[in-house]
Amino acid sequence: MSTAKETAGGEMPPWAEVTPDAARRLLVAAVEAFAERGYHATTTRDIAGRAGMSPAALYIHFKTKEELLHRISRIGHERALDVLRTAARGEGNATERLADAVSSFVRWHAGARTTARVVQYELDSLGPAARAEIIALRRQVDAEVRGIIEDGVASGEFDVPDVRGTTLAVLSLCIDVARWFNVNGTRTPDEVGALYADLVLRMVGASK
Which residues bind DNA (predicted)? Predict the structure, then answer.
């Protein structure tokens, strides 16, 4: 499980700019441990051991295990949001932008699958304040996709009676890729992204 090397379309992993090196190693180790064992079953000793550090060294950079999860969740959600924003605010009509948004979002969840599983499925392990911050980021993610679909409906490109419900369905479809994607499977992240983009365009009744 090589979290440090996870990429989507060749992009750098989300921890690449985290400093110092020890803090980055702890984040990578925590992602791997949380993905493998779950947040509650993972101890700070597990994380420190994976990072090649003593348990005491962990507390120099992170006060609690929850702070590690919060940092992972925030960085991961900000990266996912950036992927969607880039596509949503790009050139092209709503059909082209939705296809780009879905394929990019899926590629991120497939290419960074270990990280994405923790980011997307450990929300309830956060305390109230941290959870509220991540939920606010999720609402922004929702707004980016909903905005493209609304543009498509307004332009006549899409036939969507329930924009909010369809937005939820699209996001759920993309996010679930992190749960099942297998790097040794028959499809690459790019291929899954292209497949899902086509499926979503069919879902919204896009007039190609």
Answer: 43-62
Spell out the domains of the chain, with CATH numbers in brackets. Answer: 65-203 (1.10.357.10)
Q: Would you say 65 and 47 are in contact if contact means Cβ atoms under 8 Å apart? A: yes
> In the numeric block, which tokens belong to residue 117?
């599983």
Give the alpha-carbon dihedral of 155, 156, 162, 163, to 10 degrees.
-30
Cα separation values, 179 from 3, 38, 61, 80, 121, Å: 15, 13, 29, 16, 9
pTM comes to 0.85
Q: What is the pLDDT of residues 100-156, one digit of tens each?
A: 999 999 999 998 888 999 999 999 999 999 999 999 999 999 999 999 999 999 999
Token readout for 145 is: 């996709």
Helices (H), 10-54: 21-37, 44-50
Confidence class for position 20, pLDDT limits 50, 70, 90: confident
Structure-token match 């996001």, residue found: 171
